Amino acid sequence: MPLVKLTQVNKIYKNSSGLEFQALKNINLTINKGEFLAITGPSGSGKSTLMNILGLLDSPSSGSYELDGSDVSKLGENDLATIRNRKIGFVFQSFNLLPRTSALDNVSLPLIYAGVTEKDRLSRAKQSLEIVGLADKLGSTPSQLSGGQQQRVAIARALVTNPELILADEPTGNLDTKNSEEIMKIFHSLHKNKKTIILITHELDVAKNAPRIIHVKDGTVLN
Amino acid sequence: MNTTETFRLAFKAILANKTRSFLTMLGIMIGVLSVILLTSLVSGLKTSITSQIAGLGSNLIYVIPGKIGGGRGPGGTQVDKLTVRNSTALKLGLGNQASVCPAVQKVSNIYYFNKSSKEATVIGVEANYPDIIQSVKISQGRFFNNSESQAGQKVVVIGQTVLKNLFPDGSALNREIKVDNLKYKVIGVLEARGSIFGADQDNTVVIPLVSAQRQFGITNLTTIFIDAKTPENVDNIKKKVGEILAKSLSTDDFSVVDQAQTLSTINQITGVLTLGLGGIAAISLLVGGIGIMNIMLVSVTERTREIGLRKALGARPKDIRNQFLIEAITLSGLGGLMGIILGILSSWAINPIIQTTITWWAIVLSFAFSMFVGVIFGVAPALRASRLNPIESLRYE
Ligand SMILES: Nc1ncnc2c1ncn2[C@@H]1O[C@H](COP(=O)(O)OP(=O)(O)O)[C@@H](O)[C@H]1O
Ligand SMILES: [Mg+2]
To answer: Where along chain B do its domains lie?
Structure first.
């Protein structure tokens, strides 16, 4: 059953002097529920642009996007925010945790916008942190955690709303090999638990963790 | 996101930058403080003047020289036309319907050997003065009688400040004091009357009108006091007074005033004072609001990444807008609360020196205004935050 269906998606950026740049060209992509997919390609090939569209942070210039059976390419900002909150979990290269804020509070952040009560937020955030193996770091702030631990907090935050789709853009880009492997282990176990994961990376070694790999070059999907 | 959550977030953000938040609140705090303090000073002034005037008695009518409120037409206004002849005419014309007391006033120095009471008010009146002015009461000795008054004897009744300055031991009766260079015998001491906004009403001596006129070589009167006996008579007597005086004076040369008029004039004056001072204080509130806007704009820029993240995680534009708006309102509200507390405390602190009356409407109004300022100056930064593009914000360094 398809979770993501992109049809003839184009993305054209216009810079301030009016010059156009086509970052995505006629992308057709179907991703089924429960798939673990890697999108790879050289820097500047359009991977992040693709992820922003998949993550509803940006909309395609043309083409259609069906997420979980409904067309989301024409929705307004408020609806997009709500769908991002319910159906998508993000993991970023630079972790993007709130500074001076405990792991528990960082993880429960998406639940605030889902209208979950404080008590439920905290218990769900705790569960989520347990999944990524940080049950003993609930009260730690980002500055008290290693890079690998910070990224695990970010994954816990992506999981806490129990989303359909997990989008990770270069999640290991700021980590060493050992920590990268830790993160990949978590992705594997999430995959085993039927989560849909899209892993974006320019490193082929990292991409090879995923059963299905898509190569992007100059805004087009190869093969 | 619900309101409680938003407020909690606002408090967290405010506490994360304690010094900065406090300095920002200071602007609003000073604004509210000055609104409350200034209005309480004005209403204190009003209360004290009003009670002083009420203390004179509500049946009181004054005739004063000159025309109140201008009369600067052809011929102009004369302020020295009122004489004893007019007060005598009034006594004859009014008969026993009212009692009449002509008065002069002068500022002089009072001496007793090497002690002195400088710049005391010398009041020259007739013997019925204490009967007409309710707040004039004798605490020691007696007031001068009719024959002393008519003969212009050198007798004096002194106020509490003069008593304190000249006779620290309190025994003044039958002593001879000097008003400027002439000797008077002390026959009585007045009760204290307090001060109106710093002007001491007890640094005064009362002597017979005739003595005052002789000593100072003056023939015109400062005031003619008239007691209408009952409040119902006031209007009627006022009319008669006007008619009697108009026989020998131009209507531009005198004014007849009753207590109600005096009170309404005072209300007008204090009303203008309140508006003026309150307005100036409100401008400082506005300046405080600009400070809030400034800090909120800085805060939005500083937290660009946080805003991008929140949006990615599902915050709608209005959630972000509310977050920053409530933060601005909380800042100005807290500033307003501190201003109210300090305003009340400082009014209390000043009260022993200058009478202050805290008005509740000033508190409510200045607090509401400070919240309003928070909304007005918080909207622009909050809208800016809510419109940030999440992708660009997440990339912001
Ligand atoms: N906001 C933008 N405006 C203009 N060009 C952009 C913008 N974002 C990305 N691009 C361009 O689109 C291309 C793809 O970028 P991106 O998707 O970030 O690549 P990748 O993530 O694969 O490195 C790049 O050439 C980049 O310069
Ligand atoms: Mg990229």
So the answer is: 3-51+266-395, 102-218
